[in-house]
Amino acid sequence: DGGITQSPKYLFRKEGQNVTLSCEQNLNHDAMYWYRQDPGQGLRLIYYSQIVNDFQKGDIAEGYSVSREKKESFPLTVTSAQKNPTAFYLCASRDPGQDEQYFGPGTRLTVT
Amino acid sequence: LAKTTQPISMDSYEGQEVNITCSHNNIATNDYITWYQQFPSQGPRFIIQGYKTKVTNEVASLFIPADRKSSTLSLPRVSLSDTAVYYCLVRGASGRRALTFGSGTRLQVQP
User: What phi and psi values does residue A107 have, to the nearest 5 degrees?
Assistant: First the structure.
């Protein structure tokens, strides 16, 4: 059963701590993306990767970091430098020959 | 990136046809128009994509006039399960292929 998994679904952290969100896909897609969604808003691009060992900053990359050591994995670290980390985080992937992005179920991060 | 404008919210009743119009006045020649659906606390799901005229699939139809400055997503005979946020996006044919989401249209279907 192919798809994108994100874990955990809910995550709670104290302010000042770094936290890593998991994103795994078994769709054999080259491109992967991380988006952030705030209540009542659309999605904003944090980072994207078009191939293994390469990634680029999106529109709101400050306070975040990523790695892409394997094709199927694209973890996102929310660092203590991110001023407002509480949000819904969505990972997506795309086949280079297609336009459609496939999204994971999301991780809701709450930092207090 | 072409900016899109769509209504903040719409209400409908079960069984009705719903048309959501999106304005994209500065769409470029190579841009495609794509619609996604998002349920609360879930990731968006692709609905339909088109370049011009009309596109239809098992879920919806997409109408695009000749000037391509707007598009209309048509959902036939909506049900309660169609209650969701619908995003209109304009996407270029090259580049990072990331999607730029506006605030979308919140569709509420009543029984």
Answer: -125, 125
